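Encode chain A's predicted structure.
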Amino acid sequence: MDNPFDLSGKAAIVTGGNGGIGLGMAEGLARAGASLVVVGRNAAKNEAALARLAKLGARAIAVQADVARRDAWQRIVAAALGEFGRIDVLVNNAGISLRKAPQDFSLEEWRDILDTNLTAAFLGAQAVYPEFKRLGAGKIINTGSLCSILGGAFNVPYTASKGGILQLTRGLAVAWAKDNIQVNAVLPGWIETDLSKRARASIPGLDERVLARSPAGRWGRPEDHAGVAVFLASRASEFITGAAIPVDGGYSIQLL
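Encoded structure for chain A:
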């Protein structure tokens, strides 16, 4: 019987795919048979990610780029088509954050966070749309956050950007459903990444509060996002669009 989760012959672009959640998703897609374009600003991290994907037997290339720039997306798409001849999946995962009281953010900091987290996802969607139209199908997976649905006093620009990701997902899903393009979001909870490790070290009691609130009783891991990425990238989710799936161990559903 045909496997609806099989991604053999498919090509996926993963922004921020050189570490953390993005790399966890990329590894899941690779195990399902997809070829990968890893996009990141750090060339050394890009190469390290390629080495990990190579161990899985995946075909993969890296593009060093700032995804908040339209001309960068022209290079990313050209590289994907030049190497693999097609683009089937876009994972908009690149993101940054900064912890400050809202009154202390500069306009430049606000714009940098919104551009990297939200504008880049819009530009990426626009960039792959012609290829999706040519193929008659496409999948976009946007990485949101629990901050897409919950407020945070310490990261208001990030929260605004991730709320925007949720609405961008819904808007694109409605606009492009007629083109057989499914657009969905993943909402990670408290995940063990380099950023969260620094937060745990600098915020007294954060680890204890997260564990107390999480029914799963642990922090999430990047690899916890592999399965949902495969599901949303594959034929298994062809009638699902505009959805936002928390990957948070139940954090967002527990009252106390």
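The longest helix spans residues 107-135.
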